């Protein structure tokens, strides 16, 4: 083989190796739900199913012959603590017949919870994801923003809004 032929083959092999993953066109999709899934896990799979529908996928039951399978993984971990305002009624001062609320200045330490949602989309019968996405949020434990339904909807929607990009999403 001559040197120019060798160089050409090397460039051809490099371009093949650097070729991007195939584009994922929306189509029929089934979302995997483990048989022993908790109610918490089911909230997330339901939210991902709705978000996939918004991204122009057609959700079908898992037993169907959908083109794609979506695998959903959710992890929640403690991520430290933060000072939050106490949920106590304010103190009141009486000035004649007028009651004035006084700032209590009280606060309490509340835990922070980090929630990560990962979605892998695979061709049915395949083991390698054709698309993967991840969204994360950190919320004050026990707050309205940390309610499982709110977190599931927020993360799933943010993740699928950026489809087909593969960048991780951080959700406030």
UniProtKB/TrEMBL annotation:
Keyword Signal: yes
Top-level taxon in the UniProt lineage: Bacteria
Provenance organism: Sphingomonas molluscorum
Protein name: DUF4136 domain-containing protein
Keywords for this protein: Signal
Stretch forming the signal peptide: 1-17
